[in-house]
Amino acid sequence: MERDQCEKQMAAMKEAFMLFDTDGDGRIAPSDMGVIMRTLGANPTQAQLRNMEVQEDLRSPLGLARFLDLMFKYMKPEDSAEAELRDAFRVIDKEST
């Protein structure tokens, strides 16, 4: 089950990367990291994002491998009970209100 969850997270990360790679050059802007992380369920603060930029020296566009490394390093694994609860609410609240 844990491996399956990891594979799902990896697929979601790759899909998000491709969506933000608007020109198809295989790279995204470091400034997109916060939006992508939030899209995938994390909630980093601006201070945390700035800290990541400084610690990781994010000045140039990121390729997929670097992006995935950063995502796994900075995204906290989602608690499975929390994920199940969130999924249950999505079934009930189809309009995400």
TrEMBL record:
Keywords assigned: Calcium, Repeat
PROSITE patterns: EF_HAND_1, EF_HAND_2
SMART domains: EFh
Entry's Gene Ontology cellular component terms: myosin II complex
GO molecular function (one): calcium ion binding
Pfam families, sorted: EF-hand_6 (PF13405)
InterPro entries: CALM/Myosin/TropC-like, EF-hand-dom_pair, EF_Hand_1_Ca_BS, EF_hand_dom
Presence of keyword Repeat: yes
Transmembrane portions of the chain: none
Name of this chain's protein: EF-hand domain-containing protein
UniProt cross-references to PANTHER family, sorted A to Z: CALMODULIN LIKE 3 (PTHR23048:SF0), MYOSIN LIGHT CHAIN 1, 3 (PTHR23048)
EF-hand domain residues: 8-43
